[in-house]
Amino acid sequence: MFQNKMVTPAIPERVYTLCKIVEKKAMSTSEVKEKMEPSYLNQKSSYYNDYRNAAEELQLITVTDNVLSVAVDASVLKNMDTMRSYINGQLNQFREGQFYKVTKAYFDMGEEILHGEQNVANMASLMTLKTGISVDSMAMRAWRFWASYLGFGYLQDMFVIPNADTFLQDIISKAEFEKNKRYSIAGFLEKLRPHSDIIIDSSNGTKKFSFGVSNGLRTLQDAGVIRMEYILDQEDTWNLYHVDALSANETVTNITVLK
């Protein structure tokens, strides 16, 4: 799922449910499958292997001799939000996988993403071109579920509106910033990168946040989570993405984490 090809049956809710089933005690593959897909329902298709493989890939479970066991602390599976935060901290290890590369390419498109194809399934050929790996419509449909769940944007029908506020808040929490301390923009980013660099740096090397990251930072500031500042005598500066080409770039030199 994250290491290789994304598939639609491996949605976050199924992965979470599987993990909760084996949280109390280890179970055989057949036992877990029966609980997830009861035989009395006479389902014609089984998706069990897809979401079990996703859970194993994310190191939420281990599978030994066809027995499934939870591989994470109970706090990770407290709810869907805690599982999301955990997964967001694991993304760097999947740099060569479809999810990582498609997400990065999607964010690198900037404002352009709003004016093109509004069905992500139809963007498969474009993402193949931009990522250099094969991406089909099923992979893009699967991507939209996970991109929305992990906080990279807001789902609108078959389209994801880029806004990384939830993802950014997860990795800000993991970075353990000192509250109410003013960090230089370089210091702020340096603390984030070890936890996930999937969308932090621009692909062309410029010090400009992407459209989706800029939306996320503005949302977090509006919510009182961070405060962005521009201080004149600071040399290190980054610019927020502006939709209006006639407007001046918003420049940021310092960020304070408030809560």
Structural class, judged by helices and strands?
Answer: alpha+beta
Low-confidence runs: none
Tally of helical runs: 10
Strand content bin: 5-15%
Helix content: 25-40%
Oligomer: single chain
- Give the biggest sheet: 3 strands, antiparallel
Major beta sheet, strand line-up: 1-3-2
Radius of gyration: 20 Å
Order of helices and strands: HEHHEEHHHHEEHEHHEEEE
- CA-to-CA gap between the ends? 33 Å
Overview of this protein structure:
By secondary structure, this protein is of the alpha+beta class. It is 39% helix and 14% strand. It has a three-stranded antiparallel β-sheet. A three-stranded antiparallel β-sheet has the order 6-10-7. It has a two-stranded antiparallel sheet with strand order 4-5. The radius of gyration is 20 Å and the shape is globular. The two termini are 33 Å apart. The mean pLDDT is 93.
In terms of topology, how is this protein built?
Elements: H1 12-21, E1 27-28, H2 29-36, H3 48-57, E2 61-64, E3 67-70, H4 80-88, H5 98-108, H6 124-131, H7 137-149, E4 153-156, E5 159-162, H8 165-175, E6 182-184, H9 185-192, H10 211-222, E7 226-229, E8 238-240, E9 250-252, E10 254-257
Antiparallel strand pairs: 1-3, 2-3, 4-5, 6-10, 7-10, 8-9
Helix pairs in contact: 1-3, 5-7, 8-10
